[in-house]
Design a protein that fits this description.
Blueprint: E1 5-8, H1 9-23, E2 27-31, H2 35-38, H3 41-46, E3 51-53, H4 58-70, E4 74-80, H5 81-86, H6 89-97, E5 104-108, H7 126-131, E6 137-139, H8 144-156, E7 161-164, E8 169-171, E9 186-189, E10 194-198, H9 202-215, E11 220-224, E12 227-229, H10 233-243, E13 245-253, H11 258-269, E14 273-279, H12 289-295, H13 300-309
Helix pairs in contact: 1-8, 4-6, 9-13, 10-11
Length: 319
């Protein structure tokens, strides 16, 4: 059964920062002229004295955020992934990551769903970039519940954090009792035949795919990795040992993303056959969300079809 929809992550972003700022006067928001899109405008209306409109000057925005962090403030960045990661990459690397400053890169409009803004705004290699950057914690929450918890965690954490947020409402994976723990893999469905590992808002679609697979007699073990760095090595190994077969699924390039990260871990700690479902060395294109999911093999139906057609050779060894 398809999971229910939750609130948009961008709405959670604005509302949570408004609430956090009531209790912590160090929190400030820097916006790259996109507040109405990222919902940073909620913060602007609630705390105008701590909202800095930086305009379309993202490199400068990162520099200002770094400067504010040296003064003891906690700056959150409000812009799209394309303008938080790619355009100011040198400033992020030199001024924030290398210095270890307490800047929160809360980037909206990640992945495919950018409101049909076009391939220039669809960034599907940001996980590859950020998790490879020394000192940069990298998190991709699954739904609105986890997004709020990640934001609250980030506000308390001392040091740079990259949080990957998507534009549109997402399926709700977790209940109110969910607790986000940095670097912990979360089993969201038990299974015995194949392990499906996913991240971000793709994980709920993978749970739906597991339901479809169950109807075909395939028992899928589903694991959610919100934290791409630091990775839960023990959790990934345990998930692989569960079935001996691993498929990673991500709304991101398979080069250097979740699939690459899981493959790195297993090649060192528990050699396992890994198949990767995701974007394959391509530039994406504009279309409605459902069309893009089908086109790139990421809808629940397309994921289930791909997993169902996979052949694994001899039966996998299980510990």
């Amino acid at each position: 059964m398809t999971l229910p929809m939750g609130r948009p992550m961008r709405q959670v972003f604005g509302e949570t920062l408004v609430d956090l700022a009531k209790a912590d006067e160090r929190i400030v928001v820097l916006d790259g002229d996109l507040g109405s899109s990222t919902k940073a405008d909620l913060f602007e209306h609630a705390h105008p004295e701590r909202f800095l409109q930086m305009g379309v000057a993202e490199q400068n925005m990162i520099g200002v955020a770094a400067g504010l962090a040296t003064m003891g403030l906690i700056p959150f960045i409000s812009t799209f992934v394309s303008f938080a990661v790619v355009r100011p990459l040198d400033q992020v690397r030199v001024q924030v990551a290398q210095t270890g400053l307490n800047v929160k890169l809360t980037a909206g409009y990640a992945g495919l769903f950018t409101g049909m803004a076009g391939k220039t705004h669809q960034i599907v290699d940001d996980i590859s970039i950020m998790r490879a950057m020394p000192g940069m914690i990298t998190i991709s929450p699954a739904d609105d519940i986890e997004t709020e918890q990640v934001l609250r965690w980030a506000a308390d954490h001392e040091g740079p954090v990259y949080i990957r947020l998507v534009r549109d409402p997402t399926q709700r994976l977790f209940g109110d009792d969910h607790v986000f723990r940095l670097g912990s893999a979360v089993t969201v469905r038990e299974g015995t035949d194949v392990t499906l590992i996913s991240t971000g808002s793709q994980t709920p679609r993978v749970v739906d795919a597991a339901d479809l697979l169950a109807a075909r007699g395939i028992s899928a073990h589903v694991v959610h990795l919100a934290t791409l760095k630091p990775l839960d090595v023990e959790g990934i190994v345990a998930a692989a040992e569960r079935t001996g077969r691993v498929v990673t699924v991500e709304e991101h390039s398979i080069i250097g993303g979740l699939g690459g990260a899981v493959s790195e871990v297993l090649s060192e700690h528990r050699p396992t056959r890994v198949r990767r479902i995701g974007l394959r060395d391509i530039y994406t294109e504009s279309a409605p969300n459902d069309v893009l999911l089908d086109l790139y093999g990421l809808s629940a139906t397309r994921v289930a079809d791909q997993v169902g057609l996979m052949t694994w050779g001899a039966p996998a060894e299980r510990s």
